[in-house]
Amino acid sequence: MLKVLTPNPETDSSRPATPAALKTELFRKLFHLCTLVYLAAYLIIGPERIMAAMLPWMAVVWAFEALRFHTSWGRAWVQRWFGFMIRGKEEAHYTGFFYTSLGALLTFAFFRGHPDIVRIALLYLAFGDSASAVVGLAWGRHPFWVFGRKRTWEGSAAGFLAALGIGAANGLPPVLTALGALAFSAADILPLPPDDNVWIPILPGAVLLGAINW
Fold first, then answer.
1. Disulfide check for 191: which of 43, 66, 107, 149 has CB 3.0–4.6 Å away?
2. C-alpha angle 116/120/126, rounded to 5°?
3. Model pLDDT for residues 109-130, shown as the tens digit of each residue
4. Residue 60 — φ and ψ, nearest 5°?
5. Spatial distance between the Cα atoms of 202 and 122, rounded to a whole number of angstroms
6. Distances in Å between the alpha carbon of 42 and those of 36, 96, 99, 126, 198?
7. CB 142 within 8 A of CB 152
8. C-alpha–C-alpha distance, residues 123 and 130, integer Å
9. Could you report the per-residue pLDDT of 41-57, keeping only the tens digit for each?
10. How far, in Å, CA of 164 to CA of 184, rounded?
11. Mean pLDDT score of the chain
């Protein structure tokens, strides 16, 4: 059973982010770029066979989390090698890596027959989410809260602009570029359970597919 979002004391505090929290987030977002590996796998393996590769990999990712949850040696091993990137809230919840992998899997499941949508959706996840988080923590000075979750106008604007750039660079018409960026921002800002890494590719992908078919 997927655990839902919980407040994150490192980033949801009313106080500015500490240098340690910013450093951790930078490492997390560098690791977050593994989304590009999933995109490369899709482009190399092809839409017909990507699910046959992703389903076993998702089982491996889930097993990794299960060992961390249920065995002392699994917790110790993860803490030794990846503890510096694991947020306090993730000690008893699935990590961002799990949800990023799940978001990629669902993107392939829903949109694998639409390569342009898959590419743009996963680029939103890789770069739009990273821009929002890093800019918000480093330079965010005007916070706002959505259902108890802290966001900043600077971070949200950075994510929106990154999404606009991704859409434009991938040849979307201006209207679709704007719609995709707005859908990205909604998924990024709203605390939708279980995690935004699931919704960031899925919601814009659905909006773009609906707009194209409309």
1. 149
2. 145
3. 999 999 999 999 999 999 999 9
4. -65, -45
5. 9
6. 10, 21, 18, 15, 17
7. yes
8. 10
9. 999 999 999 999 999 99
10. 10
11. 86
CA–CA distance, 7 with 148 (Å, rounded to integer): 8
Residue 127: both structure tokens together: 């770069």
Domain residues of the chain, as ranges?
19-213
Find the mean pLDDT for residues 177-191.
Answer: 97
* Token representation of residue 206: 């659905």
For residue range 84-102, list pLDDT tens digits in order.
566 666 666 888 889 999 9
DSSP string computed for 126-186: IIIHHHHHHHHHHH--SEEEETTEEEEHHHHHHHHHHHHHHHHHTT--HHHHHHHHHHHHH
